[in-house]
Amino acid sequence: MYLIDTDWIADYLGGKQTAVDLLESLRGDGLAISLVTFGEIYDGVYHGRDPVAAERNFVALLGRISVIDLNQEITKRFARIRGELRATGQIIGDTDILIAATAIGHGLSLVTRNRRHYDRIPGLTLYELPSTPPVSS
């Protein structure tokens, strides 16, 4: 199963073909989002150009993926990760740490383009996007 970061969900909902293709290709293995991503997407829904259509699209997607709640174990893992990053001067945003803690706690690979932040977190498995074969001329 894969935990999908907010960036890919937003692109999927925006109809970006790369995101649609990727999520559809991974769907058979199981897709989930963190409750944090749920909130971040709803921020975009409520403050976007067409909240009604955006919410309709998101609710349709939610019918095909799981939402993983935060719990005490995830928030304790968040605290450990945050403290370790702070101690090494590599702190990142709390929402990213909560998403990472969710992935680690559930043994999921995180699908994200934000490798610059997530690469700092030990024990986090990041999904490797398949490389595109070179176009022959």
Can you characterise this structure?
The protein has one domain: 5'-nuclease (Rossmann fold, 3-Layer(aba) Sandwich), CATH 3.40.50. Helix content is 55%, strand content 11%. It is built from seven helices and five strands. The protein has a five-stranded parallel sheet with strand order 3-2-1-4-5. Helix 1 packs across helix 2.
Averaged pLDDT: 94
Order of helices and strands: EHHEHHEHHEHE
- Structurally, the number of domains stands at 1
- Looking at CATH, the homologous superfamily is 5'-nuclease
Q: From the alpha-carbon coordinates, what is the Rg to the nearest angstrom? A: 16 Å
Placed side by side, the strands forming the largest sheet appear as: 3-2-1-4-5
The CATH first-level class comes to: Alpha Beta
The proportion of residues forming helix, as a percent range, comes to 55-70%
The strand count comes to: 5
Structural class: alpha/beta
Point out poorly predicted stretches.
133-137
Distance between the termini: 37 Å
The CATH architecture can be given as 3-Layer(aba) Sandwich
Measured by DSSP, the beta-strand proportion falls in: 5-15%
Shape: globular
Layout: helices, strands, pairs:
Elements: E1 2-4, H1 6-13, H2 17-26, E2 31-34, H3 35-47, H4 51-62, E3 66-68, H5 72-87, H6 94-106, E4 109-111, H7 115-118, E5 125-126
Parallel strand pairs: 1-2, 1-4, 2-3, 4-5
